[in-house]
Design goal:
Number of domains of chain A: 2
Number of helices of chain A: 5
Oligomer: homodimer
Largest sheet of chain A: 7 strands, mixed
CATH topology of the largest domain in chain A: Nucleoside Triphosphate Pyrophosphohydrolase
Order of helices and strands of chain A: EEEEHEHEEHEHHEE
CATH class of the largest domain in chain A: Alpha Beta
Structural class of chain A: alpha+beta
Strand content of chain A: 25-35%
CATH superfamily of the largest domain in chain A: Nucleoside Triphosphate Pyrophosphohydrolase
CATH architecture of the largest domain in chain A: Alpha-Beta Complex
Helix content of chain A: 25-40%
DNA sequence: CTATTATTGTCGCAATTTGAGACAATAAAT
DNA sequence: ATTTATTGTCTCAAATTGCGACAATAATAG
């Protein structure tokens, strides 16, 4: 983690979405001894693709490879330059600000959102953080710098892309019921959808493969399980 | 243009769209004595917002303020790091590579697209370029580095945003006919649209104000002129 | 002044998509 | 066997879209 290792002035932040208990959640880290909450982020090595840097960070935080990842905006206002904040974090961790002076510079942050299966993840804090935990989108702690704005824009982008790309299933198990999928869509869009119309629409797209029924033990008709599968050689991008 | 003035490793590129002769066009600059074509780009000052840097560059290139501008992607692959190219440009302009060594570093580029009224612009080359001219999207010269990819992605984004935001009119005069607007949409989407359906749809959105007719001298019914105007307090963002 | 021509604003109709409710099927409990 | 909750599917109305048609009209030609 030396100065020469990373591109100066460049950082990334990631909004990592998961779905649990009918709620859309994201991963938030908390820095040691500071009470500061932040999005998981990191820096780009000199010899590393930007996208690869983000995937590396995601791997460290979630243990997952092959995550659905989307870049959505780059934040570059001068107002986000607040060296005191970074200084606080470094000092709270007994990092000499001499060696890490480059971290006190102005940064531009490229923001990504990721969709992962909540169950697959054991959130792991990094060196500076003492926790990395899920928070419901409707119950986030106050975030440092402009991270609240980043989250807001991430959700906005996810919603916009929900129909065009077919990303809902990335938040679920490989096998899921129609009801689970609908609840994911409802959590993302923040509104109730009509069951019949939703089922009809999704099925008409021909991207789901139907499997055996799921017998949950509940006293009612068992739902089919589905997996995401392009039957014909259809492209992922709709339209 | 000294080293200390700009943020290292950070550049922007802009895809500036105009509409003329039923064609969608963009501005391309050509560097002195090199035969290299590129998108208009620039750097971010230490004390300057990223978005402001782009607007500053746009102002220099087009003379226009208040341009419709959209950030769409940040390109950060290592593969775009080709110091020879920049060196060629600097040497062709008799710029000492000593003073401009920072320009030979690896850069991450934040890409924007702009929509402007073709007629309003007198394209102006910068210090390093000997021309800044319009090129039809279907007849672009070979562009340096990954600039062709940037253009491709810009068009893709513009198309995706065309319905959601109502951006077509930014390429036209304040007063325009329905036919002109349709031709803009067709140029962007790259397909013919049905006249009746287009008119009905646009008018139903209630965002156009109808003005007097335009008597062109042609032997046919004169079309109405329209301007873009939100009648009720509607938001620009649709949906 | 009348006929012609090209283009415009608008309408009608069929086809398609969407919203909302209804109903039979069914897995498990009573 | 009956009840309960949920599922898959259907029907019908409402809204949207694709496509052609028609009258209106600005200028020109005769």
């Amino acid at each position: 983690m030396e100065q020469t290792c990373y591109l100066r002035h460049i950082a990334y932040d990631s909004v990592i979405f998961g779905f649990s208990g009918d709620k859309l959640k994201i991963l938030i880290t908390k820095y040691h001894n500071t009470g500061l909450f932040a999005l998981p982020g990191g820096f780009v090595r000199m010899d590393e693709n930007l996208n690869d840097a983000v995937r590396r960070g995601l791997k460290e935080r979630t243990g997952l490879d092959n995550i659905y990842l989307e870049q959505f905006y780059t934040f570059g206002d001068v107002a986000r330059f607040k060296p005191e904040v970074m200084k606080t974090i470094l000092e709270a961790n007994n990092f000499s600000t001499l060696n890490y002076e480059w971290m006190l510079d102005r940064f531009i942050s490229i923001a990504y959102y990721a969709l992962i299966n909540y169950k697959d993840v054991v959130p792991t804090p990094d060196v500076l953080s003492d926790s990395c935990d899920w928070y419901s989108m409707d119950d986030l702690p106050p975030l440092m710098l402009d991270h609240s704005e980043i989250v807001k824009k991430a959700l906005q982008n996810l919603r916009d892309n929900l129909e065009r790309r077919l990303v809902g299933m990335n938040l679920l198990n490989p096998l899921f019921t129609m009801n689970e999928l609908q609840r994911v869509y409802e959590a993302i869009l923040g509104e109730k959808l009509h069951r019949g119309a939703f089922q009809r629409k999704i099925l008409s797209m021909g991207i789901l493969k139907r499997h055996d029924k799921q017998y949950t033990g509940a006293a009612n008709k068992a739902p089919f399980l589905y997996s995401f599968e392009l039957s014909n050689g259809a492209k992922l991008e709709i339209r």
